[in-house]
Specification:
Layout (H helix, E strand, L loop, with lengths): L1 H12 L9 H26 L7 H14 L4 H13 L18 H12 L2 H14 L1 H8 L33 H24 L2 H27 L14 H5 L3 E2 L3 H7 L7 H6 L5 H14 L5 E2 L4 H11 L5 E3 L4 E3 L1
Parallel strand pairs: 1-2
Antiparallel strand pairs: 3-4
Helix pairs in contact: 1-2, 2-3, 2-9, 3-8, 6-14, 8-9
């Protein structure tokens, strides 16, 4: 469904004229096509968890093709994402959306910026940093990665200067799979260049580039809201354990249409962290069972998504401070 709808949406994009008058159509197309194609990203994500098909070879082929088409280095991402699941909300070994501590150099700079700017401007900057450039910065430089991996890290190369931390995010033996991931992305870039030569660079930017930006916005929106809020703690080596980290995950109300298109990734995420091998079509039942049997452990926030996103951008964009009562870190 996701692949078929995405191809149909792309076909519509090839028919829209490249004119100034057609700008509203291009905006609608970018939002619509990108929102639909996010479903392909989610299916590739499921392949990376071995939750898509019993045959691992089929999973690798489907995940590799879908993610390469979206300029995601599949095997490299699958490795870093497995680290995220193994160390969720861990300040040292976590992998995505790891906030700096207030005592660190980056934390001090972030807190100064937060104090000097008014909340609205700080929230806008935080949204732009996360939703527009956050995903490329994560892939290229390892932005928001945990302290132990050092900075920078890269999903495209695991040699110098991207291996300067206490531990390696991508061990040297991973080099072959990293190269394979890069080849997939390079093949897609080559296809886009050929398409630009055959038609025009502007059309390729509109037909492919606009949905690509929207997909990235959806991706960061989901991951940011899944693991961040004012009452969500982050743990250091001394207090973290897997169960604590996995349960600091929030299900949110995305509505029936987005849940259909994106396979419920934002509304069944607690279940996904409890057992990431559960396919999306069984995650709804798993979520219902978890809420029935452990209602105090399954976090759910009914705040509308735009309101929750703005709250997190304005309130949670700084560093985290240690709470002496439970030895956890909060915004």
């Amino acid at each position: 469904m996701s692949a078929g709808l995405s191809l149909a949406a792309l076909g519509i994009g090839t028919q829209i004229p490249i004119t100034l008058l057609a700008t509203p159509l291009w905006v609608l197309y970018g939002i619509g096509c990108g929102t639909i194609a996010m479903g392909c990203w989610v299916l590739a994500h499921e392949c990376g968890h071995n939750a898509f098909h019993p045959n691992r070879r089929i999973e690798c082929v489907v995940g590799f093709l879908l993610h390469s088409a979206l300029l995601v280095p599949y095997y490299s991402w699958a490795r870093s994402h497995s680290v995220h699941h193994a160390h969720c909300n861990h300040l040292e070994q976590g992998e995505t959306h790891v906030p700096p501590r207030a005592s660190s150099a980056l934390g001090q700079v972030t807190e100064q910026l937060k104090r000097k700017l008014n909340p609205t401007l700080f929230g806008i900057i935080s949204l732009l940093n996360h939703l527009v450039i956050g995903w490329p910065l994560y892939l290229l430089l390892g932005a928001t990665g945990g302290e132990d991996y050092g900075f920078p890290t890269s999903h495209f190369w695991n040699g110098h200067p991207f291996s300067n931390g206490k531990r390696s995010l991508f061990p040297k033996r991973f080099c072959t799979l990293m190269v394979r991931s890069n080849i997939g992305c390079l093949a897609m870039i080559t296809f886009l260049i050929i398409a630009a030569i055959q038609s025009s660079p502007l059309r390729v930017m509109c037909v492919y580039g606009l949905p690509y930006l929207v997909i990235n916005i959806w991706l960061i929106t989901y991951t940011w809201l899944q693991h961040t809020d004012q009452n969500i703690p982050h743990f250091s080596n001394t207090t973290w354990c897997w169960v604590k980290g996995a349960l600091q995950t929030i299900d949110r109300p995305y509505g029936p249409l987005l849940n259909l298109l994106h396979h419920g990734i934002g509304s069944t995420h607690v279940c996904h962290h409890v057992n990431s091998a559960i396919p999306h079509y069984n995650a709804w039942r798993g979520t219902a069972l978890l809420r029935e049997r452990f209602p105090e452990l399954v976090l759910y926030d009914a705040t509308p998504i735009p309101e929750a996103l703005w709250r997190i951008a304005t309130k949670c964009g700084g560093a985290v401070y240690q709470n002496p009562h439970d030895q956890a870190y909060y915004f």
